[in-house]
Amino acid sequence: MESTGGVRDRGCARRSAVRAMCASRDYTLDSGPNEANKEDGIKFTRALPRRVGAEQVLDAVHRALGGTPQFEGYKNPMHAAQLPGIQAIYRPKKPTQGDKFLHLFGKPPRLLNTDTERVNETSLAQVFELTSGATLNTLLTAPTNTLTLLMEQSDSEDTLISALYWPILTREPSDIERTATREYMRRTNDRRAALEDLAWALLNAKEFLLRI
Question: Which of 18, 20, 40, 167 has its CA 20 to 30 A from that of 72?
Fold first, then answer.
């Protein structure tokens, strides 16, 4: 009887395979175009920037700021990636912020068996949602969000800055970013508002929204 234990049973260690792919030249190609590939969009001569999917953006925002989105038709909050394939309510009468966000960013109701149902193009409405929409504003100003926890746990500006970068951009800030952020925090009398502004800026960064 043939084993169904996965990749390893077929003579290939999964970790080694993933390591080899990630270390390959093709995988590590720069997304920045050069004279030879600036017009290429199909031959994989460079990494093409792509917007992160609607579910991933919404879940990442909640993971960074705290909380779990709520969707109409489901009693308990859940991650957007956990939603069943078809919406509980195709045309919700009282859509939640999570429902509106996913619809705006192109998540389809999945009534058709085709990938073309999903809309991946960016739009001006998405920009407005991220810069001044209800979803980010509600999460940023929530009194019990991650920002509150960070302020309670640390009085050090450098620690706060690092703790803000890691859940949003999954990296340490550069020296230039750290210096600019530190100076901004020192110029304000409202530390909480400054932290909200910085989190808002990082959540609107290309590095957060795009696969580059």
Answer: 167
- Whether 79 and 56 have beta carbons less than 8 Å apart is answered as no
Same-domain status, 44 and 64: no
Angle, helices 134-141 vs 191-203, to 10°: value is: 140
25 in the same domain as 55 = no
What total number of domains does the chain contain? 2
Q: Are 191 and 151 in contact (CB under 8 A)?
A: yes
Q: Are 83 and 70 in contact (CB under 8 A)?
A: no
140 contact partners, CB below 8 Å, separation of at least 6? 65, 147, 196, 199, 200
State the Cα–Cα distance between residues 111 and 174, nearest whole angstrom. 45
Do residues 37 and 46 touch, judged by C-beta distance below 8 A? yes
Domain range spanning residue 114? 51-212
Block mean pLDDT (10 aa), the chain, length 212? 46 83 82 83 78 94 95 93 82 89 89 76 92 95 94 88 94 95 92 95 94 76
